[in-house]
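Entry for the shared binder. Reason: the reviewer on the internal report wants the predicted structure included alongside the sequence.
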Amino acid sequence: MSIIYVLIPLAVIIVAIAIGVFFWAVKSNQFDDLERQGYSILFDEDVKQETAKPDDSNDDSCKQSNKST
């Protein structure tokens, strides 16, 4: 029976911490845009493929400078 004197305040403290974390998340705008992260996963590869293409204009300038030397 004496354990209940420990468990009830402990439960109240844990609930208070959870409520505090929830209000902190709402205040810091954690719940504003819930869909952006899901879309970024779907379209992330398309952006990486476009930036990974080699630029042909740089290759031509290197070839021309090698011919002149």
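Summary line for the report: The two ends are 93 Å apart (CA to CA).
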